[in-house]
Specification:
It contains 7 helices and 10 strands. α1 packs across α2. The strands form 2 sheets. Strands 1-10-9-6-2-3-5 form a 7-stranded parallel sheet, covered by helices on one side. It has a 3-stranded antiparallel sheet with strand order 4-8-7, covered by helices on one side. By secondary structure, the chain is α/β, with parallel strands linked by helices. It binds fructose -6-phosphate. The site of fructose -6-phosphate has 14 residues, from loops.
Length: about 240
C-alpha cells in the first residue's frame, strides 16, 4: 500500500486526477471503477478540466460505479445516478452506453444484484476509485461484510445514514438499503486509488494504516491487494505518527 500525503483536499484531488488522466492517455479504452460522495468530486473536476483542455477523451472509456441507494429513482437528485451525471458524465464525451451504475428495483433486488455481478465478472477494471467511510466501509460494504462478498443489498448502518444525511433534508429521507459492489469485486481491480481527506477521516486512516486485517474494518481488505494507492491529506493523517 502506497501512501501519498498531500497538503489538503485540492492537492489530493489533483494527484488523483493526474494518475487517472495519465492512465487514460496510455490506455484510451480504460475501464474505471467510480465512487460517489464528497471524496471524488475534486478528482472529477480535474478530469473534466483535462477533457476541456483537450488532454483526454472518454469516448472509449467504460465505467462501473460502486453503489446506489435502493428506493430512489434515477431522477432523484440524491441518487448516485444523478450525482455521476451532474459531477462527471454530463461534462465529458463519455458514451453513456459505456456507463454502468447498479440499480436495484424494489421488486427485483436479487435479480438486480445478479445482473450487476455478472457484468462485473466479465469486466476487468483497470483503476477503482474509492472513498472510505468513517467506519471503514468501502463501497457500502459495512463492518462484518465478508471479504468474499459479491454485489448485494446492504442494510445501511445508522452511522452511515447519519454521515450521509447532509445530502438529504432529514435523516428520515436517507434510504435504509443500498446495492453495492462486494469487496471481492472491488479487489478484482488491477489498481485501487483510495481518497481519504479531512479530519472526519483521521480515525479511519489511522486504523487503515495500523495494517490489522479484519472484517470489522472493511477497508483493511485492501492490504491484501498488490497495487493500492491511498491519497490523504494533513488532517486525515493527523492521528498517524509520522
Ligand atoms: C460512495 C461510496 C462510499 C463513500 C464513503 C465516503 O460511492 O461507495 O463508500 O466513498 O462513504 O464518502 P465521502 O467521500 O462522502 O466522505
Amino acid at each position: 500500500m502506497k501512501i501519498i500525503r498531500c497538503k489538503n483536499y485540492e492537492e489530493a484531488s489533483k494527484v488523483a486526477g493526474e494518475i487517472i488522466s495519465a492512465s487514460i492517455k496510455t490506455k484510451p479504452d480504460i475501464v474505471l471503477g467510480l465512487a460517489t460522495g464528497s471524496s471524488p468530486i475534486g478528482t472529477y473536476k480535474n478530469l473534466i478540466q483535462d477533457y476541456e483542455n483537450n488532454n483526454i477523451s472518454f469516448k472509449n472509456v467504460k465505467t462501473y460505479n460502486l453503489d446506489e441507494y435502493v428506493g430512489l429513482d434515477r431522477q432523484s437528485p440524491q441518487s448516485y445516478y444523478y450525482f455521476m451525471n451532474e459531477n462527471l458524465f454530463d461534462h465529458i464525451d463519455i458514451n453513456k452506453e459505456n456507463v454502468h451504475i447498479p440499480y436495484a428495483q424494489a421488486n427485483a433486488l436479487e435479480e438486480s444484484c445478479k445482473k450487476y455481478s455478472e457484468a462485473l465478472e466479465k469486466a476487468v477494471v483497470d483503476i477503482q476509485l474509492l472513498g472510505i467511510g468513517a467506519n471503514g466501509h468501502i463501497g457500502f460494504n459495512e463492518p462484518k461484510t465478508p471479504f468474499e462478498q459479491k454485489t448485494f443489498i446492504v442494510n445501511l448502518t445508522e452511522k452511515t445514514r447519519e454521515d450521509n444525511k447532509r445530502f438529504f433534508s432529514s435523516i428520515d429521507e436517507v434510504p435504509t438499503k443500498a446495492i453495492t459492489m462486494g469487496i471481492a469485486e472491488i479487489m478484482k481491480a488491477k489498481k485501487i486509488i483510495l481518497i481519504a481527506t479531512g479530519k472526519g477521516k483521521a480515525e479511519a486512516v489511522k486504523r487503515l494504516l495500523s495494517k490489522e486485517i479484519t472484517t470489522d474494518f472493511p477497508a483493511s481488505a485492501l492490504h491484501l491487494h498488490q497495487d493500492v494507492v491511498v491519497i490523504t491529506d494533513e488532517e486525515a493523517m493527523s492521528l498517524v505518527n509520522s
